[in-house]
Design goal:
It is a single chain. By secondary structure, the protein is mainly α. It has one domain: Fido-like domain (Fic-like fold). The chain has ten helices and two strands. The chain has a two-stranded antiparallel ribbon with strand order 1-2.
Length: 231
């Protein structure tokens, strides 16, 4: 994975600025479409790309789906402006506010949950301890860089974030953004999880909730390598 990341950076270094921007836009069309599709959006990659970068509004989609696309784009821009620092509580609040703007109530937007929520039939961390658990996750992530590979830290952190499920809604989208923030903070390239792997992805997160991190790390590894296999 590290070699794939380095190879892609070398590839980008050979491109002019316009081509680099097109490469990023291509990735964002894929990332945003797939991340939203995992949560039920029907906006495809081409439709997402055209909507975000060509100002072409697709027909036959709900206002929520359009918000999901533009909101994820704004959240990504926030990461680009701040990834050099390690994410804080305030950054997570800001990202959640951007991701669910126009979708979620202002009462819960950009705030940790005050009620119990679930992933399927499984309990997530109690709202009574969510801030404490998020602080513990941040500390674990920082310390883990000295012990295990950066990619594994990012993948396991993502799984732990989803187990905590700190917000009322939008946890999957925020969690996948956060995973890429951690990778970028470590000088590594970003990646997308394809919606075609949705069932395997959810199963892997369920395994993580039961204490097994191997499945989510393996899935993310496969998705990462698959994204950069053209190199």
């Amino acid at each position: 994975m590290r070699q794939a990341s380095q190879n892609y950076k070398k590839y980008l270094s050979t491109l002019d600025n316009v081509s680099k921007e097109k490469e990023k836009e291509k990735f964002l069309g894929i990332f945003i479409s797939n991340s939203n599709a995992i949560e039920g959006s029907t906006l495809g990659v081409k439709e997402t790309f055209n909507y975000l970068f060509k100002d072409i509004t697709p027909e036959g989609h709900s206002k929520k789906e359009l918000f999901m696309a533009s909101n994820m784009f704004e959240a990504w821009k926030y990461i680009e402006n701040n990834f050099k620092r390690f994410p804080r509580h305030e950054d997570l609040f800001e990202m959640h506010g951007l991701v669910n703007r126009g979708i979620e109530s202002e009462q819960t937007l950009g705030r940790y949950k005050k009620v119990q929520n679930y992933v399927g039939d499984s309990y997530t961390s109690s709202h009574l301890f969510v801030k404490e658990r998020m602080s513990m996750l941040g500390k674990w992530t920082k310390a883990a860089f000295d012990k295990i590979d950066d990619f594994e830290v990012a993948f396991q952190s993502h799984a732990q974030f989803e187990i905590i499920h700190p917000f009322v809604d939008g946890n999957g989208r925020v969690g996948r953004l956060l995973m890429n923030w951690i990778l970028m903070n470590r000088g590594l390239m970003y990646f997308a999880i394809n919606v075609s792997r949705r069932n395997a992805y959810i199963s892997a997160l369920n395994s993580a909730q039961n204490g097994r991190m191997d499945a989510i790390c393996k899935l993310c590894y496969e998705e990462y390598i698959g994204q950069y296999k053209f190199l």
